[in-house]
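Exam revision sheet. Question 4 asks you to relate a sequence to its structure. Input first:
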Amino acid sequence: MVCGVTSDPRKPWWLLPNLLSLDAPLVAVVWLAMFAKTWGVNYHPTHSYVLLGLGVWVLYVADRLLDATLHGDSPRCRERHRFHRRHWRKFACGGLIAAGAALATVLMRSPMAIFSYLIIEGILVAGFFAIATFTRPAAEDVPFAKNIVAGAAFAFGTALVAHVYQYDKGIRDLLMAREFHVFAVLCMLNISAIDLWEHASRHSDPEVLATDELSLTLPLTLLAGACLFFALQAEQHSSRPFYYAVLTGAALLHVVNRTRARFSLEALRVLADLALVAPALVFFSFPSA
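Answer key, structure tokens:
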């Protein structure tokens, strides 16, 4: 069953990036710039940002079309899924063109080392789509496993496009990097926050609401504390702005969480995206960045 095709009233302009799946590519490109600056990547060509943006957009379009097809009768099927379903031919055509352009960029413009990174990224993406396709969580469940894999895939994919240009580093160095770890956790919490807000909107049981609140507030608090610790401990001052940026993202997500009753679910999705873009202002305000 697929998402029902309903009338398509004019949408507010601020919702268009979400409907067009442009929100995630924007977040990825912004954090790629922060990773490159933090790790002191001297040579970082423009086509690497184009490659990341195209790749993320293709995967998000594929995910939303898949969700619209498999879970059309689920409460998780929201306006972004219905929009993709109504315009699936345009998204499918655009996705194929973007995938071809991304593949050409990898083959013709990217360093050979990127292929070993892409093996790990491919495993994470395949795991995500396997969970999305073959597991049927109850409508009342929050898909934490899917969100954890999605956050890890998004963070690794973003970081690798900067890390591959550190020619004296390898995959193990990326997997051990604290910057990657904290950003991955932030991505996982960002994705889970949206599901938790949707889950809470369907319940009035105080115990369920308290559990949802703790499931988000506690990890955000721990992440913020870890970032503050890492920033103060960092021997290289160039890495401190990155930890402060992640801390800012966690704090903004917490603010959105505490004030969520004022906003619609669609507006909350946009605010969650902004909570991951706004930290760039903090990052680039530091002289060392």
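Marking note for examiners. The two ends are 49 Å apart (CA to CA).
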